[in-house]
């Protein structure tokens, strides 16, 4: 177990030096949204003297002390109040450990997003609610037990909750760093059966329960439609085998609240085609979203989908065969990746302009216009059916397109490919021998198999 004394070296007075390190070097105008006595800003100015640091502080006595260290201090409690500052005036906003304590989090984060420049960054540190100390306390029924050398449970969050919240607020977040305090010997062995019952990937579970805090960097998503923008309804379809995962993710998506959109669930499908083709054939609306059960769609997502769909039609001359949020294009020069997705603790942000025409899409989320001739082949099982669909679209002269509509893939599984994936690889190789090798998001399919 990590000695708590080791953490002391990571702080200067009350300034978290790891948090300071998370602030980009190029950030010269910084808002510290919970400056307290100004020690973090003091460190940031010491590292880069050209910086201008503005602090927000709820305590008048602390604000007076911070005023001697920062360039400007405003009386404001970010958990309840919103600062009156010029839009797009900061390179970086640091909210410290306040993310879990915001009373109106979406309103506060939306305001902070307006204060950032288009390429700005929001930096937060989140006490991990999945840390082994918190899990022990929950099992013991004594939540105060997790406070020993730690953080009150009310100020902690699961990493997935933080990612969902930031996406809803219009940010693209990723885990930049983590402070770890591993469990004592034997803890993981004891917790293993419970993790297995929940079908949690072992290495991922071990890494998450050892993380005491997550340091999150979030980028404003440009060009989001206004909340009042009208858009048509869509049909959303999902093949599901776990009601809890579905309820916690896809069905928890705020953009699907109410009855405006058609949501079709297929249980017990023997292959993806059986369920997804039935969804398309039963769809009431023009766009059919086919998502994994562990995908979360932010509150603005459907408006963004229509925005991007029209952009794709304009870019590629009319009709689209199939769309997705992540894909690849293979060529003699190699494989180019496209898309922006928060995928577990990782951020897939490939940087290539979108929308983009691709040769293969990831199955985590697909969009099929109802009138598209694209359907799915049952021979592919539950893998590589999107690659096959892209090839089918091409046969009809229609593009497969990646759009810029970020979502969260909250998978519990690890990165190892199952044997079924390799069987699907053999099936698609047999079906499209003249198109080999095939670049896919998870590898290259050739006559020799998947690599």
Automatic annotation (TrEMBL):
This is Methyltransferase domain-containing protein. SUPFAM superfamilies: S-adenosyl-L-methionine-dependent methyltransferases (SSF53335). InterPro entries: Methyltransf_11, Nucleotide-diphossugar_trans, SAM-dependent_MTases_sf. One of its GO terms (biological process) is methylation. It comes from Azospira restricta. It comes from the Bacteria. Keywords: Methyltransferase, Transferase. The keyword Transmembrane does not apply. Residues 51-123 form the Methyltransferase type domain. GO terms for molecular function: S-adenosylmethionine-dependent methyltransferase activity.
